[in-house]
Amino acid sequence: MLRDNSQMQLSLSPYQGLYDIVVPQEHLLRKIKEHIDFSFVNPMLRKQYCENFGRPAKEPEMMFKLMFLKKMYDLSDEKLISGAQTDMAYKYFLDLDPEAEMIDPSLLTKFRKTRITEDILEDMLRETIRQGIEKGIIKSTAIIVDSTHTNSAARPKTVTQVLRELSKQFRRKIYREMIELSEKFPEKPSETAELAEEIEYTYHLLENVKEDILQSEKISLIELYERIKELLDTQRIREIRSKNDEDARFGHKTATSTFFGYKSHLAMSEERIITGIEVTHGGEADCKQLPALLEKSQNNGVEVKEIIGDMAYVSEDNLDTCEEDGVMLFAKTNSAVAAAAASSLDEGFSFNKDAGLLQCPAGELAMRVEKRAAENGNTYLRYVFSKVKCRKCPLWEQCRVGKSKAKERSYSITQPNEKNRLRLEFEAGEYFRERLKIRHRIEEKNGEMKVAHGLGKADSVGLDAMRLQTYFTAFVVNVKRIVKLSALNPA
């Protein structure tokens, strides 16, 4: 239950004067409290609370500010609450009395899981932009786009290892709760068994105990049974690389290095205020996120006339989107991207700008690229994929490359057409080169979010948790930027 304002009495603590003594005027939290209005939090979160029933909840604004401090100083829940108990700057920022007792850290977990939805994350980012516009800080009509990767909190494993761990977890749970069913377990495959054999074993295991488990009242056991059954039936098990973090995927940083986790796709104004966010698994192509970043920035109140990014964002679809919206796209095209943009790629194929190679729908990179001449005088790029990986790929039946009977699995792209040549001429202009010079600002922002605020590694597992982490980190850096610019340009 959310208390109304009449139930939240202002304290008359005799120790309030301590804040004037121990929290310096130049302290960042004092400046944030002075320049940023957090009163939007309670109305924004009111729909997440029961109006008339239940125990009185901790004030949403205080809980929200605790989440802010957590990302501001990159702290665990326990260290945050421990620090807030003794740090006067924290308590001043939280609007607490100096002698006030802090909450139990477990309440932060409940707040994250039950009060913060995707809509609320969008609303809180929009609020920083609104305050930035209101203060006259956001004036530009350009956004800079880029992505940054975050390593999963879980370690990646092979699909066979993941399935083996899930079946082991299932058997252990049966031993604890319905040990009599252990007599129905089929013989386990050897440690060297291939994926197909492990899948067959798991199907037999589930089938042997299905009737007894579904008729039991063991809710957690039923849920685990249904989870494993769904993974097998939908073939999702072939995509998962961790039983603890099913949403994380491998992505490519370069042609020879990968990461396991997620991508945060960001749009930022020239004033370094983040205006739009998309969070995906690590294997998602950057180019696909540009329309969403543009739309979110516009919905958040930013007028967009220019988009500045790297070569990943030049695609025929993105150029058409920008043209329809009257937006100029400042992103440099290399010959490979131009070639990809010149032809209609099969669904799921995309150009990976970090590796400089084509990426298939399963997320695998081409091993190499060959430039060849056709008999009609045209040139084309031939991307060669691993024949071994294609044979094992769960998507091979839908992929023309995988089903090929040729000695090598390859995908060929014709070199730029007239439309792309005009694009390259535009990129050779002086104004294009000048606008592209500010792209480094978003790379610096990515670095700030990862190094200073912990975005380099996921706090928890799952796409929802990663989305929450990214949005709160963006909220923190936006607030810091607004405070800095407000101090430089006082009204």
Automatic annotation (TrEMBL):
Q: Which Pfam families match?
A: DDE_Tnp_1_3 (PF13612), DDE_Tnp_1_6 (PF13751), DUF772 (PF05598)
* Membrane spanning stretches: none
Where would I find the Transposase DDE domain in this sequence?
Answer: 235-346, 360-482
What region holds the Transposase InsH N-terminal domain? Answer: 22-113
Signal peptide start and end residues:
none
Identification of the protein by name: Transposase
